[in-house]
Design a protein that fits this description.
With 266 residues, the chain is mainly β. The protein has one domain (3-265): 6 Propeller (Neuraminidase), CATH 2.120.10. Helices cover 10% and strands 50% of the residues. The protein has two helices and 23 strands. It has helices spanning 3-20, 213-220, and strands at residues 28-40, 47-53, 56-61, 68-73, 79-84, 91-97, 100-105, 110-115, 121-126, 133-136, 141-144, 149-153, 160-165, 167-168, 171-172, 176-182, 185-190, 195-199, 206-211, 229-235, 240-245, 250-257, 264-265. A hairpin with a 4-residue loop joins strand 20 (229-235) and strand 21 (240-245).
Length: 266
């Protein structure tokens, strides 16, 4: 474990606990989820980025020497197309934009673009700090870097064009990870937790927390080596929401339930 990783864990223990347990002017509702369908997922995939497009899932995996981008058949979990990235890079979030796939890497301050159809490399681009996740609102790319901020990128140049502070109950929301644009909101995995935050992209306020603890317990009960909840994809045409985790053998289509009576973040 690196010193940076230890620092992150410390921030998580102190910062997230303080945020979720702090007094608030307004309470943030908590939502649950019901499982619509469970699909196979590669239990060796250290999932970093995920999106759904034209009937298929696109996934990026992490860890140096093991990172790749892949196209996956939803119904079977079969990898239809795959490209490994250079062993010196830890692959992170991905997003599609006008025929290309855009990928971040973790600490190397470099990202890559590929032809979406062939996965053939097209270009590299640079950014300051860490790269964690990507999504798009249809006009801009939205990037997370592990901090309580979202960055906005020009999708044509991949230059940063703005930032948004994300808060919950008036306090910074730490550890924002994998992102997905869902019906005008940013859904974000909160790293090392069982939660997805629902973020208003205009104000940065967290308007709800989705608690997926039952799914995590279900995966842990299988006795396999799994890692944290991470990976959100949305099929806008059919209003289907998918979630998974690093090294999980399952990918779930879920429906949100709630708000849960009496369950609030305050």
């Amino acid at each position: 474990m690196t010193s940076r990783m230890i620092c992150r864990l410390a921030l998580l223990a102190l910062g997230l606990a303080a945020v979720l347990g702090s007094p608030a002017r307004a309470q943030v509702p908590v939502y649950g989820a019901s499982v619509v369908h469970a699909y196979p997922h590669d239990p060796h995939a250290f999932t970093e980025g995920l999106f759904y497009l034209n009937g298929a899932l696109y996934e990026s995996t992490g860890l140096e020497g093991q990172s790749d981008i892949r196209k996956v058949q939803l119904s079977t979990g079969k990898v239809l197309q795959r490209r490994a990235i250079d062993k010196k890079y830890f692959g992170e979030g991905i997003v599609a934009w006008k025929g290309k796939l855009v990928e971040l890497t973790w600490q190397t301050e470099i990202g890559f673009t590929y032809d979406l159809a062939t996965f053939k490399p097209r270009a590299a681009f640079h950014y300051k700090g860490e790269g964690w996740a990507l999504t798009s609102d249809g006009a801009r790319l939205i990037m997370s870097d592990g901090t309580p901020q979202l960055r906005f990128l020009n999708p044509a140049t991949l230059a940063e064009i703005g930032r948004l502070d994300v808060t919950i109950n008036g306090r910074p929301m730490p550890m924002i990870n994998e992102l997905e644009w869902v019906k005008g909101e940013v859904f974000a995995n909160i790293w090392q937790t069982n939660y997805i935050a629902r973020i208003d992209p205009k104000t940065g306020k967290v308007t709800g927390i989705v608690d997926l603890s039952p799914l995590v317990r279900q995966e842990l009960a299988k006795g396999l080596r799994i890692d944290v909840l991470n990976g959100i994809a949305y099929d806008a045409a059919h209003d289907r929401l998918f979630v998974t985790g690093k090294l999980w053998p399952d990918l779930y289509e879920i429906k949100l339930t709630g708000p849960i009576p009496g369950a609030v973040v305050n």
